[in-house]
Amino acid sequence: MPSDKKVALVTGATRGIGLETARQLGQKGIAVIVGGRTAQAAQEAADKLVAENIEAYPVGLDITKDTDRKAAASFVAEKFGKLDILVNNAGVGGEGGLLNAHTIETTEEELQSVFNANLFSVVAITREFLPLLKKSPAGRIVNLGSIVGSLTLQSMPGSPISPFKAFAYNASKTALNQFTVHLAAELKSTNIKVNSAHPGWVKTELGTQHAQMEIVDGAKTSVELALIGEDGPNGKFIHLGKELPW
Question: What range does the record give for the signal peptide (predicted)?
Answer without folding.
Answer: none
